[in-house]
Amino acid sequence: MMMARKQDVRIPTYNISVVGLSGTEKEKGQCGIGKSCLCNRFVRPSADEFHLDHTSVLSTSDFGGRVVNNDHFLYWGEVSRSLEDCVECKMHIVEQTEFIDDQTFQPHRSTALQPYIKRAAATKLASAEKLMYFCTDQLGLEQDFEQKQMPDGKLLVDGFLLGIDVSRGMNRNFDDQLKFVSNLYNQLAKTKKPIVVVLTKCDEGVERYIRDAHTFALSKKNLQVVETSARSNVNVDLAFSTLVQLIDKSRGKTKIIPYFEALKQQSQQIATAKDKYEWLVSRIVKNHNENWLSVSRKMQASPEYQDYVYLEGTQKAKKLFLQHIHRLKHEHIERRRKLYLAALPLAFEALIPNLDEIDHLSCIKAKKLLETKPEFLKWFVVLEETPWDATSHIDNMENERVPFDLMDTVPAEQLYEAHLERLRNERKRAEMRRAFKENLETSPFITPGKPWEEARSFIMNEDFYQWLEESVYMDIYGKHQKQIIDKAKEEFQELLLEYSELFYELELDAKPSKEKMGVIQDVLGEEQRFKALQKLQAERDALILKHIHFVYHPTKETCPSCPTCVDAKIEHLISSRFIRPSDRNQKNSLSDPNIDRINLVILGKDGLARELANEIRALCTNDDKYVIDGKMYELSLRPIEGNVRLPVNSFQTPTFQPHGCLCLYNSKESLSYVVESIEKSRESTLGRRDNHLVHLPLTLILVNKRGDTSGETLHSLIQQGQQIASKLQCVFLDPASAGIGYGRNINEKQISQVLKGLLDSKRNLNLVSSTASIKDLADVDLRIVMCLMCGDPFSADDILFPVLQSQTCKSSHCGSNNSVLLELPIGLHKKRIELSVLSYHSSFSIRKSRLVHGYIVFYSAKRKASLAMLRAFLCEVQDIIPIQLVALTDGAVDVLDNDLSREQLTEGEEIAQEIDGRFTSLPCSQPQHKLDIFHPFFKDVVEKKNIIEATHMYDNVAEACSTTEEVFNSPRAGSPLCNSNLQDSEEDMEPPSYSLFREDTTLPSLSKDHSKLSMELEGNDGLSFIMSNFESKLNNKVPPPVKPKPPVHFEITKGDLSYLDQGHRDGQRKSMSSSPWLPQDGFDPSDYAEPMDAVVKPRNEEENIYSVPHDSTQGKIITIRNINKAQSNGSGNGSDSEMDTSSLERGRKVSIVSKPVLYRTRCTRLGRFASYRTSFSVGSDDELGPIRKKEEDQASQGYKGDNTVIPYETDEDPRRRNILRSLRRNTKKPKPKPRPSITKATWESTYFGVPLTTVVTPEKPIPIFIERCIEYIEATGLSTEGIYRVSGNKSEMESLQRQFDQDHNLDLAEKDFTVNTVAGAMKSFFSELPDPLVPYSMQIDLVEAHKINDREQKLHALKEVLKKFPKENHEVFKYVISHLNKVSHNNKVNLMTSENLSICFWPTLMRPDFSTMDALTATRTYQTIIELFIQQCPFFFYNRPISEPPGAVPSSPSAMAATVPFLTSTPVPGQPSPPQSPPPTPQSPLQPLLPSQLQAEHTL
Questions:
Q1: CA distance 708 to 46
Q2: Separation between Cα atoms, residue 1342 and residue 1363, nearest integer Å
Q3: Which of 5, 358, 1149, 1429 is deepest in the core (most CB within 10 A)?
Q4: What is the CA radius of gyration of the chain?
Q5: pLDDT digits (tens, 9 = 90+) for 856-898
Q6: What does residue 513 show for φ and ψ, rounded to 5 degrees?
Q7: What are the C-alpha distances in Å from 333 to residues 273, 326, 330, 394, 624?
Q8: If phi over 0 gives left and psi between -120 and 50 gives alpha, with beta otherwise, what is residue 1179?
């Protein structure tokens, strides 16, 4: 063996000759044996550089070219390879062949023409300037290819590859080929060079040929055979490396791999590369409109692309790309098709919703019908080219209309048929629903409150079950029940109004006695409208209590017709009639309720506002009252430190009307913030009617600069502040220059100065008092009250139209929104009449306490309740006051046809005759009456004016002179009906005060703030003058020289005397102010408290004055407290001995002579229930006398709870006793202390008590405070006994929230808070949210889902409701429930099961609205829902299967809930379990539930 020694020894070089059968077509057949393909694949293995066609038939010019170079061999070039031992080597590849002339088809003649066998065995090859061969296309175009010459023009061959074609060659005999190969081998063997037999085309190989080839090799002394396939690139490199191993004996022996094993490896490599390439294509190509050129450029640098192209070539890569593009296009078309098919039902519903129109139409005819519809083009598009999926319409994403040719497809026809079927089924179901509803309406068995289980058998039939599910019928039944229950309640409320005389005769108070309740139910018991609510006794009792509340405390809010109460309508009509653009600046003088209240905004950044607010609060009393010049004012502060354009930082809110603003600064930045905030606030109100913020009084204050003041001198800050104050036109204070200590921003004196300035500003803007001048009051000659019935079928607009349109009608000066002034000619003179238009319930409160010269009472002739209320009202009116009855009818025809109208008209006329009143009727169809119809009535009023005024004055003076004890023996003492000076809530304004006399030097000087009685207590001159005036009027004597005008608006009532008497004993003159004619609107629910032990007893500070029956609770009455307390700040010099008793006695003597009686005594039709006034003791259970009271107290000590039997009730009728028990409340129940808000006490939080959406973001859906608390609890407190049941320290919870409010990065572990403190603070966060975490709208759906009996269906229904939660609420709810689930898993240690946790948490998470009976009776349902969420947390939130319920304990609360009905409505008093103690083992239905419930209530 000879090797080229001149090569670099470090990189060995081998020259290999590839030989095999060659020659003409006769010798080798129609194709060669694959020598060229073998060389091509080895030298250039890339698929793109591999060529299958290498022809040996050449032209003479090609044969003589530099590539062939007139030789019968080809130089394939030099190849570098790394062999198995990682040693790199070089190989020069030569192919011995025989080129055929394309003219003669004989071998070309060369310089050394020898037979192929001789020539192929040559070991020395020489050809000067011979070029490397690439492919057949290179011949003749050598300059277009790389030109690389054979080295030195000669090669020494080191070994031979002998090729044998084992495929079924065309026109070739394998045996002949084998003979040729045998001869060739013998010739090669003579060279002593290594030979390796290569079986080519094994991918098409014949098994016999392969076997014969191996047999041939075995016969030639261990001749090695390698099975290859150049097309598949299998074992090509192995063949050459095997020969190199034989050439260089120092190399390791190469392992020869069989063809099929090597093919498998190659296929796996190609498959892997293909997968990677397809992944690359799918990642880069997203649009079916991409082209190969741009995409291939993007992929060129990717190894996945390079590997696949290397193995399979660019064409196959492109083919895969095109397949992917086709797939994308197909998917895109299918998506569009689905969208179109999804839109088709909507199009059908919009265009052909009427079944009658298409019931018998085929799809083809329906298609034509669609084209005729006006909105056809809104739903469909007609394309010029079809089908739509082969046009460019598929890429028109903006056009979502359905291609009309889609209607020709089978799916569209199926959808049309489904639309038809749905309409037919819908029609049938609608028919079934109508039939079912008609059954409900006509069935006599369906009564209000009847359960579905009882009613089902009466109304259901097979057809109903066939077409609709029972749940649908239950829903219809539920709605029908709601309708008939609402109607029954309305009719029952009307019944209560029809018995108004009974309720007013009983003189009911806050706590009606059981005898009175019994009378009510006995009287009403036989009424059908009472019996209609037989199955709804709780609701019926609640309506009675609510009506009692209305009778005792009549306001717009408690009115049964609310919000259409007559008072509200009248206020709106009068205010809209008299408030003109020029009067808008005085609007607040008529409507501002905050007469003695100062609302102050404190503006300052970086904590300045909060600090000053805390300092001012420290100077206030415990109830936020501030004393200025000896007078108490309620001070409300609103510190603002953020952007004032945000609602949370707005100057003005629906409940906060600012009177002034303190602007604080201690730096340039804080001063800039103040200026920007003021400008923003003023801009926000520009263009509004209520733009009073533009004129809001401002005070700019320079406060102490905390810390370093370098760079900002005090002088410069003062100078800048003065400039800003000048621009803003506000007051400037610089207490910082006064040397105030570090701990204070502003001293008490300066605060008082600022507040005084605000009071002055309020007075200038008519915000402090709307009191009419004495002249205006004195000029009113008559005061007439016009009474209307709420809910009557007529319009108050029509009644008031002639009054308001009168040219003499003016706005009342008394500040009331229900009064107008009229100037009418009566007799020979014009009279100024103050006409107050009120509802009947508002008029009740002024019958005794106000000076009224006459009443015009309206009633509807076709409504019994209207006339009943009129009768009840007239019962207590003195018979000297003229009455004008006005009956409103629907016209003469209605009166003739309607028996009720005739009866009511007749009765009204008879009442008018018996009381010597006036009567007239007005048709509602022509309500535009004129004031002239009241002229005779006005004349009666003028005639009786003097006696009315004298009687009223006498009554007031007699009341004032009576003792406190006598006053409080009155059954109605302290009642708001007699004491309209008592406000409904803390937010109500103090009424304006009136002075009795003109300012005259002949009269004693009186303060405008003094009432009549305070004047009387001060001296006897005024009293003597009043009494002498009475006598002169009654005896028709000449009046004194200075005649006072009639007394106006006396507000001295029995409930007020203790207040004044106390003030007299203290020697201090009190201010008694008068309220408008209409009682103050509404009451504040925050004033509700627990029941008081007694109502009628002397009080120096009138606080809890009446009780309110809750709308939905059974047997629960809530007491409203009054904040109008007597204040005593000093002493005076008045005494009882200074009173003029002689003038008092004269007044008494006059009253005896002319004492008027009530209309009830003159009219037989009035007072039909008067016998009940004296049949038993008047008042509440606490007024039954000391003996009875003592018996009740003794009984109540031994019997506690709503369901116990009190001994003295055992002899009563059982039905009546049950009713009374349902209406009674435990008067001995201690009043619980209200839980103070930990966020309101000392600082204004921007994190707690704000909407949930303001403390979460899409990136952080969980509030950071909740996240911190739960992480802390799960890290340290899962084993804490009674976690969430045991309350944390309140002050520590407050401290935790305050610290977190200042620093959201607060580390709970470092602060060493207890686990119970953190748990309590976390619950407090949810309690203080404006809306509960479980929205109210979702609670209704949750309760409905919980009613499903089947457990699995119930859980799935709850899960569907959960999906409807707002996203923020859902994420937080999921987080909290997951945490509670985790806590419950440790119940063996912490003793907190899912049930215990739900008892503690459901009020916090749901906060149900107890204004409805449904919410009150569903408390157990709410708790069970939360328990289910905790138990089934994996199912609800993590798509896990439903877990099996834990084993139920027979005596568990869940099992025993049905036997303890009161557990779901009224909590039974009990002692909460001590802290850190486990809940008791559930041995009874009361032990496991009540302590936990009560503990939860104490915690929340």
A1: 78
A2: 11
A3: 1429
A4: 52
A5: 999 998 899 999 999 999 988 988 999 999 998 887 666 667 7
A6: -70, 165
A7: 30, 11, 5, 7, 72
A8: left
